[in-house]
Amino acid sequence: MPEPVDAVEMQAALLRLRRTSGLPVVFGGLLSDARHARIAELNGAQTSALRGLVISAGSGLGGKAIALSRPCAVTDYAFSRHISHEYDAAVAAEGLRSVVAVPVVVRRAVRGVLYGALRTPVTLGDRTFDAMVAAARDVEQSLAVRDEVRQLLAAGRAQVTDPDAAPGAWEDVREAHRELRALVPRVVDPALRDELLEVCGRLASAAGPKVPAAREVRLAPRELDVVACVAAGATNAAAAQRLGLRPETVKGYLRSAMRKLGAHTRLEAVVAARRAGLLP
Fold first, then answer.
1. Looking at the DSSP assignment, which residues form a beta bridge with residue 26?
2. Rounded to whole angstroms, how far apart are CA atoms 179 and 182?
3. Does residue 35 sit within a domain?
4. CA 161, chain centre distance (Å)
5. Is the dihedral of CA 18, 23, 25, 29 positive or negative?
6. Same structural domain, 109 and 226
7. 214 class by beta-carbon count within 10 Å (0-12 exposed, 13-18 middle, 19+ buried)
């Protein structure tokens, strides 16, 4: 079953979709297994007829989109000859006529389906299709980030538990820390973001107690992200690409971090950050 936090991405995508497309009704859900999606999120619906509906691959419009892994649309749902009609009662109860369904595909696997609908039988235009596809891409990217976060969290916890398990283990710790730090700004769910930061902190302190300093050093999150990239040997341009920032912005964060760390070179900044327990 999809985890409750996964609904955050779906809710946000549907809200943006309704605003950008002008569609009065949008809804969708994630797959609970390879062949079934449950409609869990609705925006603009006037009844609860669609909520909780389980869509099977190949059945109805959404099931067709899941099975074919591509967008599908009908001008008048109840009279369409191109879909099966298992869900006509729920669709009619909501008064939907023109409907489009777009699958959410992550790494070639269908993970969910988004719907947009009108209560009049008209042909949906390119603007509507473009908005639907863009919304599906938003969900796809969010789910892909979440998948990557879960994998890195598991790897990070393993490194914290046994950092000396294999040769080069500390490089693995440092790489996991860098990747997790880079993902933090892309995570919209607060609980998952906090979990990420907590594991980052544990990875940073895994090397042992920090060296006592005259004063405690505190870096802003983005300053620490940049220093972590520098520790990996990244140039300002490479760090900017990795973090989704401009090179000039990266340069500013690095300059600020170096000032706080009392460093005069990039290498000194990395060494000082590790001594302060900010990097593994």
1. 43, 116
2. 5
3. yes
4. 27
5. negative
6. no
7. exposed
